[in-house]
From TrEMBL:
This is Amidohydrolase. Residues 186-274 form the Peptidase M20 dimerisation domain. Coiled coil: none annotated. It comes from Lysinibacillus xylanilyticus. The lineage of its organism: Bacteria, Bacillati, Bacillota, Bacilli, Bacillales. It holds the Pfam family M20_dimer.
Amino acid sequence: MKKQLFDWMQKNEEIFSHMAKQIWDKPQLGYEETFASSLQQDFLKKEGFDIVTPIDDVQTAFYAQWGSGSPIIGFLGEFDALPGLSQQVSSLYSPVEEGAPGHGCGHNLLGTAGVEAVVALKEVMKLNNLQGTIRYYGCPAEELLSGKSYMARAGVFDDLDIVYTWHPFTFNMTANFSMQALTAIEFYFSGRTAHAAGAPHLGRSALDAVELTNVGANYLREHVPDGSRIHYQITNGGLAPNIVPDKASVYYYLRGANRDAVKDLERRLIKVAKGAAMMTETEVHWELKAGCYDTLPNLTLNEQMLAAWDDLPPLSFTEDELTFAKSLQASLDSSVLAGTAQQSFVPNEISKEVLVEQVLHFPQTFRQSMQGSSDLGDVSWIAPLGQVFTTCAPYGVQVHTWQATAAFGSSLGMKGMHYAAKAMAGAALNSLLDPEVIKKAKEEFVKLRAGKLYECGIPEEVKAPSTVLG
């Protein structure tokens, strides 16, 4: 059956490369991914999947289901782009449209690999009359760290037995580490306008309150747990220098090892903002924009994907692809390459390579934290989750850069995408055939949660952004 699966995937790669390139060609920001969402829904509907949408009023969120009964196996997809990262497939900085979005995190690949895996698995299940239910989840707005949180709040992951995902990167590796929990919160201050020269004593500056909040947050940094992150953006600083601003706002990302740590950061920052309002005689209110969990990597499922790769030829690249990769790598500042080697999750043995072809697996890094966050964490607290990375760009290229956008629209990205799709589909097939895999994954999941249950970090009263499909 595994041979049937991989043979089908090999023969049909071009279908999914075309889909990924279409999404790359039309990048859209979080909650606005109407093109990618419709494209994938239409394709999966033609493949015989039942489509469920919208989810929690998020119009671009959906899931596609095929089969019946247990087990229920999920595949996660994403398809949002990043602002300002438009770029052609070129090793020279060359935006398709200056200032426009681009797929600098490879979500054009990420979601498409999930579609590829679930359709391939359906073909083998039909051919061999295998029992089970498979689902592909089209998840919006990962870059806003809230799409999956809203979906989780709606309960669409609750009945999953296991779930698989992946991410484009610069090496092939099982993701045996956690990512940080995060809260995104925006503070809005209201004061009183006045002429900044003629009568400043009559004004109450909302901008002063924002700046005092930021000063307080910066002093707070010394007194938070190691590894915590506090970063902010002033989203409204007033209208003109000669007007005391009556409205100002600041947007914060708070990261920590887990939800409890982040909730405590949130509590303390709210006190800082209240203090700033008191000092400036302004008023403050705040809005929670995202509240995702740390990830719980499931070693059992990750090793199933590793075993699927053992049944495949190694990932390999052509001379033309290597030449393109070298030129992309050459566009990086030397400090970027040096800094890449210092990232805790990057193994030393690949630091001299351009395109990493071998598979890396380090079980001993299990639960070590990666300094980043994803709403993927919410799903990992609801069902056992397996994840891998694959080589879709040259070593040293960082996601969220124009070089990444270029790589993820090229054949480098497509090869890594197919390699990930095969890992997920192969592992899922093995889980269908061997119930002990799912049992073991669930036992590990229960142990990792240590009695804590998932509770969505976004309150019910906070409504999800909505975009009308068209």
